[in-house]
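INFO  loader      accepted 1 record
INFO  loader      residues=138
INFO  predictor   begin
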Amino acid sequence: MPKTIFISLPVSNLPASTAFYTALGFTHNPQLSDDTAACMAWSESIQVMLITHAKWRSFTQRPFPPSGTSGHMLSLAMDSRQAVDAMNSAAAAHGGQADANPPEDLGNMYSRDLADPDGHLWATVWMNPAAMASANNT
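INFO  predictor   done
INFO  writer      dumping tokens
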């Protein structure tokens, strides 16, 4: 198996979260899913495991973070500024929150953060490939 990251997220409503991530462009992997967890693929090497609270409790007894707090933010590189905007629009239309933090436009980098229905934060980021290439050549 190639090196793969599995990101596990506790969710309060598995069908709604599965629909949310599908709307953002993730692909459902039924081979690693059941009625307690859904595997959602971003790429071959990045998988998000949506796990019911009951199943999560079989992994850890640590408390869930209070609503409105964050312990991490995951970032997804997008192909364009339009893709960043589209991801945020899809989040808002499917039970999440667009612009969970103020958008950033630094010219060569553009980012907007979103939150899923359970408040898990994702940054969607576009970086100008020409600017990245010139930065690597200096």
